[in-house]
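G., the chain you wanted modeled:
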Amino acid sequence: MTQAFLPGQVLAMTAQTADRLLKLDSGDAALLYLHLLRRDSLAGLKWPEDRLQGALDQLRAQGLAPSEPLPAAEPPVQEPPPPEYTTEDVAQALADQGSPFSALVSAVERRLGKRLSAADLKNLYTLYDHLALPAEVILMLVNWCAEETERKYGPGRKPFFSQIRKAGFSWARRGIDTIERAEEHIAKLTRLRGREAEVLRLLDISPRPLVQRERDYIAAWDEMGFADEAIRMAYERTVLKKQSMDWGYMNGILRRWHEKGLHTAAAIRTGDRDPRPARAGGPSPRTAAPSADQERRAREDMERLRRLMEQMKEEGT
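Predicted structure as tokens:
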């Protein structure tokens, strides 16, 4: 390799290395190189095998990764499984006059409108005893899951307790174990729920339930702080390039802007320049960076494409 991976907190690469990465024109290859530069191994990288191998082959072709096998990623830390509570364990907890568990069971049954089965009681006791979530937090969790189920599937629909258990483990991993943290988390989820509808509108997608990966993308974009117009610009560039919506490709655009600190349309127009090197013997031509006229033509192309898609849809009906 011509460029060594540098350990420590300071990451650096030569101009030659940067030029080779730019020549590859591959987001995956660049991300993999940065990961190796930072970790010096595959530890923490959770890519599927085909994605990893493709990026690695590109780096090796440019002499940016060793030909020998890289250090394998360490296996993820497995959470210890919860204990297998018995009916007697639950009965003892219910009989304990000093425990709020009995009151919690009654409150959960009222919220769900049914008596909890033996399996439901064991799952509830797992949240209470194994995860050590306070009864008030568990009740807030149950209430949130019930509201989400009714919102998605209609009034009267109730969540399965397996769904509540899964959400409870997620809350515990995030450290949501107090009333204050639960209130903050629910407020964030509520805001994101409205944000999801706004982003679907920006992406010309009719209102519909989102799959988890789509929700994760939107949550990440919201966390990065992108304005609506910036999200719309990323969408238009995605459709112009891919001829259809591609969540992964659009996420790559937004992540690149975020790394540059560009979160508004004005900042993107000013700071998102084509990083290709200048021609030998003179400066880069003025057209190397997108001009206002190019941006206008791109928007016009996008509008023509949208009208064409609508026309094709009408002809198909």
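The longest helix spans residues 292-316.

Shout if anything looks off.
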